[in-house]
Amino acid sequence: MDATFGEEGIRMSFNDILSLLRISLHAMVPLALTAAGEIVGETAGLFNIGLEGILLLSAFGGALAAEFGGPGVGLLVGMGIGGTVSLVFAVINTYWRGTQMVTGIGINLFAVGFVAFGLIQLGAPGFHDVPKAVELAKLRTPMGLMSPMILLALIAPVVIHWFLQRTRAGLMLKAAGETPEAADVAGININRIRLLAAVFGGALAGLGGAYMSVAWLGLVTKDLSAGRGFIALACVVFSGLNPLLALLGAFIFGFFQALAEWVKTLPSKPIPGEFVSMLPYIITLLVVSGAIGRVRFPKSLGVPYKRE
Amino acid sequence: MSGDESTVRSRWLRGAHRTLTGLHPALESLLAAVVGLLVGAILMYLYGFDPWKAYAGLIKGAFGGSYEIASSLARATPLILTALTFSICLRSGMFNIGAEGQMYIGGIASVLVAYFILPTGLHQIAGLIFAAFAGAVWSLVPAFLKLTRGVHEVISTIMFNWIARWLALYLAIFVVVDPLRPEKTLSIPMTARFPVLVRGTDLSYAIFVSIAFALVVYFLLWHTAIGYEVRAAGLNPTAARYGGIRNKRTMFLSFVLGGIAAGLAGATIVMGLPPTYAIYGGGGLPQLMNLGFDGMAVAMVGRNHPIGILVAALFFGGLNAGGRVMQFYGSNPVPLEMVRVVMGAIVLVMSIPELIRLFPMIKKRGEELIEPLKRWTRRSEKRESA
Amino acid sequence: MTDQLVPSKNGFFLKADRITKVYSDGTVALKEATLEIRPHEIVGLLGENGAGKTTLTKILSGLLPPTRGRVVSPKGTVRFASPREALDFGIGMVHQHFALVGTFTAAENVALSHDRPLARIRIAETLRKLEALMEESGLHVPLDVPVEKLAVGEQQRVEILKVLSRDVDLLILDEPTSVLTPLEVDELFALLRRLRDEGKSIILITHKLKEVGSVTDRVVVLRRGEMVGDVKTAEASTEQLARLMVGQALEEEADAVELSTEEIPHKRARDEVERTGEGVLHVENLVVKGNTGEIAVDGVSFDVYGGEIFGIAGVEGNGQSELVESLTGLRVPVSGTATIHGTNILGVDPRKIYRLGVAHIPEDRWELGLVLPFTLAENAILGVHRWEEFRGPLSILRRGKITQHVRRLMDRFDIQATGPNAPAKSLSGGNQQKLIVGRELAKDPAIIVASQPTRGLDIGAAHYIRQTLLEMRDAGRAILLVSADLDEVLAHADRVGIMYEGRFMEVCSPDRLDRERVGMLMGGATKAKREAE
To answer: What range defines the domain where residue A100 resides?
Structure first.
């Protein structure tokens, strides 16, 4: 089955569609994991825009760790980095009652500098190749080589959704984010639960970051994250804190990223590469603008809690 | 206390108290800066560098001589403006993270003066106007989306940053490109350039644009009714509405002003940065890159006040200028990127409120200073509640 | 849990032993407060705003640690690190601002205080337990609706159920009647008596002398953090209690307290209402929707004339806030008419409404009336900052004129502050309210809309404000007074409208009303309803 578009006759074969799908699924992974993790954090009341920085740091750290101990270690270290950075974020914004937005910006700035600095130390400024040997092996499927992480990215949001809706811990998280005063009276330690939620979310984001370098792209660059942290945030906003919808959003955005890449590979470029690169961000914008009316956020999101 | 005695004493005490309380935020910024530099030092040490040497090089490169100070001021020029973008919008209660994108678009717009012939003076004004207009337009769309559809401005401004990056790149490479040297845009003509202020440096009269704008913003916010409305809307939108303030309008206004500031920042690079007076495309507009985000750091350290921003911009400009020297200083120089690490650490520390409370020793010393003042104020408060 | 019920040799369940509490900003909230709590007893904790009642109970219920002193049970000192521990011990508190999660249902709110974290929520079981509890206690509430959609009285019932479901021995209620109709108050008190007879201890925090008299066994009075009285209710007179509450106050202040607690005396300087004859505010068939989309004001019509105080009485939450908001430009009504001297004020910008001669003393001075971080001077021009007096060419503010203005206000209204540039948040509540009142009156208004103007103020400040309003009336202004304090309205208004569920039950002169009638009207009963029963 072939499809022909336009005068120049861009041919899109069945194989092309499969490959588009494959790339989309791969691109979906960091978005889905990060978004799912952030949903947990935001349900409890913490808004972390430092996700971008976390992705970058964990991609870098995870790659380095993988070179020492293999892909598994790389992924674990990535999670650890994500969790630790989120821990710092959480402590500042719960126990020390900081400003979440500012902490997030600080994390992003720090990450950009640190990774650039680190890359120079490794030899090539701005770029580092992850040896094939330590990459996470891809599995052979009818659609081609695919990373097993895709499965994880599909399952995690479902599990998190169940967790939030059906366990008492989920109830506690929601209470802490919505009306912390009530949760406090019910005996919930607000700061502790927010901290745990943030660390969990950060660990997931860290996993997504490490995935990028160790299990997917196989390299680390200065701007590897390319706004993915913010796109994940857009997924969270658009999903109204529903992990299943966020997964859908992640796939959609991943698809457009894949599309942009595919258009760039066409022999005759109907559209300049720069405009194609803009697509994911424009789509994000459109989706968020369209979806906003319906969603409702926890009342205490972004507000530190003090017992009076 | 007899009447006259108490008036004189109390007036002095009141003044001292106010100054000290006013300084309080400045002290916090200072503390954050120190901690940030400390973090940088630790990292440098861990990587095998010599922090003392590095900071020595940094300080020398930032303030070591008139050439260096001029260089720091030149680096500070765009930072003042991008910081104002963030601060003005923050004062009205909004998080405008889009200075980066607005600056790119503004910068490209100011290149357009290359297509005109105008006398000096007018030509520069034209360039500023183009840049301001472009920046304002770019920040208006997120404002519009926020007002009509409630889109969170953080998400929309960030998306616009990325869109702007690619758009500006495209324009720089394909539209306003210099046909003779395709790696950059056209250079603007002599009549549109800001003359160099200190010979041999890259500091131009553009710095006055930045400072003037900062002063205008200060005056606007604290001495006009419009500025009053902006600040009220940011501090308490419900009370502002009660006071007859149309919050949507003030918010819009702050975004426009912020966009103008960022656009002008782009203009200062194009029109005020010798020797090329153009924008290089190369891999992401290197001259402009990150100035928007750095501006946010400046804004925070400057406590979102135009005067504080001027001081903070000088500091960060110094960091940048010093960094350039630091990366060649000594036998094992520290790369420039470390400066951004320090900046990030400073911002992180700034996000902790009441920093001073966390350091008991500082707190105690401060307390000893302020104790007599506190006693006086408590006494006067007791009088009022009696 | 039940072994605490067994009266020990000392006969008490819990004791607060010389509790002192100093907040981090230096305020002394409690000074050596000692209180014994016994089973089979309802204790009234009486005191003005800021006397320390809420602080004491928060310490007892584990929300706050004492600075000095301890909490003692017959077994020894107890220390609660969290409200949860207090709850496990048997102490439950029903807060003034309910500790409920709005988006949760009643069942979910109750489930929140049970169970271990990773357990699956067993909603069915919780529902069963709750239904049994509802039967037992006589409190009925829809269990599957998000709590924020319930009426305030129902929300309070959920709070009480939540606490009862934990089988507490000490029940603390913080100003529970401020959101209830007189009928609901009676039901609540009947429940409290039932619980007391079962052996529970109950602390009822209130500032209303009437309530103390009707349901408590013992009264404890707090003043400025100190325990000043601990008497059996039967043995104390209202005057005694009033004097204990305000201390060595002026005759006037004590009178003011009595004014708000006794039968309505008609302390008016004149026998007749001297209207200037000119109608200032005219409202016709006003319909306004509330935040949840339901009709809050259901077709209200009235007029306010110069030289009179028109009072709107009623329990909060019956549409008063929405009514005031629609008349002051803060809410757009659905339909109806409202004019000031003939000019429409519905759907109009507050700025324009102020220009028409309307002054608005808002019900929430922190959220609405002031920008707390602003200075006194900046707050003094809120709403009038664009008037020519304060704004020059190019929108530049006339600093000199503004300072003059605020100094005049500080003088005239005796506002205590360190200066015109002091931040508004450094002022006491009374001074903040005086600033607002001063600012509004300086507009030289034709009509003053005062919404809960004395809420949360100490006796002196409240008295001052009421006097000011009376002076304004005597000077010929029109005043619309909305207050949940029934006595305040009845004592000061020339005509009263009683609001219930968005409608005026009756509009007449206060002379024609007795408390029983008012109570019923506030609770919605009309002649027709009564006859139907």
So the answer is: 2-137+145-294
Buried b or exposed e, range C69-99, using 16+ CB within 10 angstroms:
bebbbbeeebebebbbebbebbbbbbbeebb
Question: Which residues, 6 or more positions from B215, have their beta carbon under 8 angstroms from its beta carbon?
Answer: B306
On whether both C456 and C429 belong to a single domain, the answer is no
C-alpha distance from residue C378 to each of B294, C297, C390 (Å):
33, 34, 11
B23 Cα to chain A: minimum distance (Å):
20
Answer yes or no: are the C-beta atoms of B231 and B90 closer than 8 Å. no
Asked if residue A269 belongs to a domain, the reply is yes
- Residue C178, C-beta contacts closer than 8 angstroms, at least 6 positions apart: C96, C316, C484
Contact C449, C361 (CB under 8 A): yes
Residue A305 lies in a domain: no
In the structure encoding, which two tokens stand for residue A218, read together?
């196989």
The SS3 assignment for C54 reads helix
In the chain, the amino acid numbered C238 is T
Structural domain count of chain A? 1
Distance CA B201, CA B275 (A): 10
H/E stretch holding B153: helix B153-170
Read off the pLDDT of residues C28-51 as tens digits, 9 standing for 90 and up: 788 888 888 888 999 999 876 667
Inter-chain CB proximity A187 and C108 less than 8 Å: no
Quote ipTM for the complex.
Answer: 0.83
Q: Give chain C's domain count.
A: 4
Residue C83 lies in a domain: yes
B347, B355, B357: best to mutate for the A interface, most A CBs within 10 A: B347
Contacts for C512 with CB less than 8 Å, ≥ 6 apart: none
**Residue whose structure tokens are 């097993």:** A148
Q: In 3-state terms, what secondary structure has residue C76?
A: strand
Q: What is the pLDDT of residues A244-295, one digit of tens each?
A: 999 998 998 888 888 887 877 777 767 777 888 888 788 888 877 876 555 6
- As a whole number of angstroms, the distance between CA C464 and CA C480 comes to 18
Cα C3 from Cα C450, distance rounded (Å)? 52
Q: Is the pLDDT of residue C481 over 50?
A: yes
Min Cα distance A111 → chain C (Å) is 35
Q: Whole-number mean pLDDT of chain C?
A: 80
Contact C329 B244 (CB under 8 A): yes
Neighbouring chains of B at 3+ CB pairs under 8 Å are A, C
Report the predicted TM-score, pTM, of the whole model to 2 decimal places.
Answer: 0.81
Which of A185, A189, A241, A296 has the most C C-beta neighbours within 10 Å, making it the best mutation to test the interface with C? A185
User: What are the residue ranges spanned by the domains of chain B?
Assistant: 79-317
Instruction: Tell me whether strands C76-78 and C68-73 are parallel, antiparallel or unpaired.
Output: antiparallel
Q: How far is residue B7's CA from residue B140's CA, in Å, rounded to a whole number?
A: 51
Q: Are strands C279-289 and C335-340 parallel, antiparallel or unpaired?
A: antiparallel
Contact A113 B342 (CB under 8 A): yes
Final residue of a structural domain among C120, C147, C166: C166
CATH of the domain at A40: 1.10.3470
Residue C298: its H or E element: strand C295-305
Of the candidate ranges A5-14, C83-92, C115-124, C198-207, the one whose mean pLDDT is the lowest: A5-14
Residue C273 lies in a domain: no
The residue type of A61 is: G
Taking the CA atoms of residue C231, residue C236, residue C241 and residue C247 in that order, the dihedral angle to the nearest 10 degrees is -70
A99 touching B (Cβ < 8 Å)? yes
pLDDT tens sequence across C105-145: 888 888 787 755 556 666 777 788 888 888 777 777 888 88
Q: Are C392 and C398 in contact (CB under 8 A)?
A: yes
Give the nearest partner residue to B239 out of C370, C385, C431, using CB atoms. C370
In a domain, C55, yes or no: yes
Residues A160 and A174 sit within 8 Å (Cβ to Cβ): no
- Domain extent, residue C431, equals 364-444
